[in-house]
Amino acid sequence: MARRIQLSSPSPSSSVDPDSEAQERILSGLNEDQRAAVTATDGPVMIIAGPGSGKTRTLTHRIAYLLATGKANPYQIIALTFTNKAAREMRERVQRLVGDRTRGMWVGTFHSSFARLLRREIDAIGYSQDFSIYDTDDSKKIVKQQMNRLQLNTDEVKPRSVQRTISSAKNQMVGPQEYTSMAHGRLQEATAKVYPAYEAALKRANALDFDDLLLKPVQLFNQEPKILEKYQQRWQYVHIDEYQDTNHVQYVLAKQLAAGHKNLCVVGDDAQSIYAFRGADISNILSFERDYPDATTVRLERNYRSTENILTLADSIIDQNEDQLDKTLWTDKDGGEKVLLTEALSEKDEAKKVEQKIRDLQLREGLEYSDFAVLYRTNAQSRALEEALRRENVPYRIIGGTSFYQRKEIKDVLAYLKLLVNPNDRASLERVINYPTRGIGAKTQERVRNYASQNDMSMWQAVEQVEQIDTLSTRAKNAVGRFRAIIAKYMSKMDSAPVDDLTRDLIQEAGMLSELRKEHTRENLRRWENVQELVNGIAEYTASADNATLSTFLQEVTLLTDLDGDDDPNTVTLMTLHASKGLEYPVVFITGLEEGLFPLAKATQERTELEEERRLFYVGATRAEERLFLSWARNRYRYGKQEHNTRSRFLDEIDDSVVQTAGGGRLRQKKNRFSSSSKGSTESYDDMDPHYYRKNLRKGSGSSKKGTRRTTRTVSSKSSSSNGSSGRRVVYDEGEGQIVPGVRVQHSKFGEGKVQSVEGEGDRATAVVFFGGDIGNKKLKLKYARLRVIG
DNA sequence: CCCTGTGTCGTCATT
DNA sequence: CGACACAGGG
After folding, report:
1. Tell me, in Å, how far CA of A432 is from C1' of B3?
2. Are strands A237-240 and A264-268 parallel, antiparallel or unpaired?
3. For the domain bounded by A134-205, which CATH number is listed?
4. Class of CATH domain A311-403+564-661
5. Nucleic strand C under 7 Å from the C-beta of A640
């Protein structure tokens, strides 16, 4: 955990001597275009780069080059990314290239970098050092509270929508006053009322939301030119990865910072812009040359990742879009396998076919499980895939969904700690005041809240003087008093006790331990292990650097996502198409290619939205190095109801010369191009010649993998890591759920049978299964028998 | 005050 | 289907 959060000393290092050996090393592995981008060290630079062109690598080498030539010392460089993972990889690679010359260099996500900057300058905008960072859930809670207070009907206008509207206003740097003047319509008018109250509530709580982390620095720079100047002086070289994903605030920040030395280097691909929904503004990259007229533009058009067929398909996807920069991708990986399209009857059928293909390739071709990625449009689609993989004991991990720090038990502990650090943090206070339940119910809380607002104090202050609140019964006062005693005790201990001990004791005394021990369920055990892991993480973090405190830990973890883990187990990866950006895999499945799902029904109305969906398809397809599988299901459960689907319009757009259907035929018949009836294509992926793949698989793919170490955590390695089980055992925490009396199962030796009874749990579980013919009943240990449920 | 059962609702992607 | 809000009994 600690390794993820790199803090380095802010002291400027002295000038660096040129290192010609390193320079050579840095340039040697690059092609001509990449080299041009790396050596263009003066003035604004835009690197327009297609997928698989090594664009992040190029950026990395440029930073290393600056260091190796002595043009800059680490202190003068800042690099901004969108994920912590990207930042970590970049830092590691620079270190590999130039050795330990990186101390003082800022490499991080936009959010964590500016949170860090704010920590230093926060006084100037009237917050205190120990501010809390509110995630989207916290923000939503605040919005809801304010709506209640303002007596707005939360049925007519959803707090969620209001929160999103406020967020996008902030992304566009529209403040509360300005917003009010231009609001029209029900949602906007409600938002106009809530917005100022929301801001005030955050301020009172000494809290910043995600958007504030970027917005406040802009305001700070405007308000205090001296501070801006300081950072402009300091960062002579500003680098931004994935520039097409920047929103307006980020754009302004980049402009402010780079205005000093004008050495702004951005990397991006307009064709991979898939984050418009969270405010990313594609025009930032499209108009870079207009913003910086003396900019050097370098195009990286050579693709090192994918085969020709995959690239042809990808090109044919993106060709349908009108808005894009000119760019032609090419590769010298000729041909390759055709892209295989499979039609399934249902999402279960689709999942089964994916699973079969994975096992088939893994067994026959010796591919690792980690060579496979299965992509989908919405997180809900992962369920069917998970079930299919679990049934066959294929290890998998899911990226996204709820990450470690979003688990309830983790958020509970974090809330306790946030409260200690920042007593004004009302969201955290309310989260833990009655968890575990200690007799402070809704009514009591409301009375405390009222007392606080009537006396113009924070809720914690009201808790501190609970005896004065005469609306409360003695019983309630006692309950609140007990809570206060616990919190106060640990507040006073904070500076003296080591944080991990403090946390452990607090968990115990607050009653979380006994809460989790109350019932001996698997779930509770897992939760407890997660809490332990958190405590270890805190200890590790605070020991890692001098200025790594509990307060900074709490700020940093809010900004971590699932993509930032650091395990590298041999598992199949399941994730959304969005989460796949920047990653690569030898074999990629894109599932759920159905009209209404991908593209989503909502997106089909607007051309711009449809184009974003198409770019998403493009991103997904270009993740594949060797093989790409597309699939869709005729029927799919949505909202608990089965829906009948037609195949995605995208399938009618793509170049069908590189596509083969599972039945062996062409994707489209030449004559009736738009017929969606495909014949005989319900066969599985297995129908093709199994040896075809081995013959054509490149040997080189193993080594190319090293560059992009995939470092995401396994679903259950979280829970198994503390009980010391090996990394191989992944994923099966739900037990052998499907094996119950009555179901039909398949056994590798005995064939089909019917489960009669099941006994025991976990590894000891056994089932009596009746098989036909002269086999009869068999008692099987589920751990070894690998039964497959077939109905 | 707390737990449980029932009904309601909706769901895209995320730092 | 599943998360979540709300009502009613313990």
Report:
1. 19
2. parallel
3. 1.10.10
4. alpha beta
5. yes
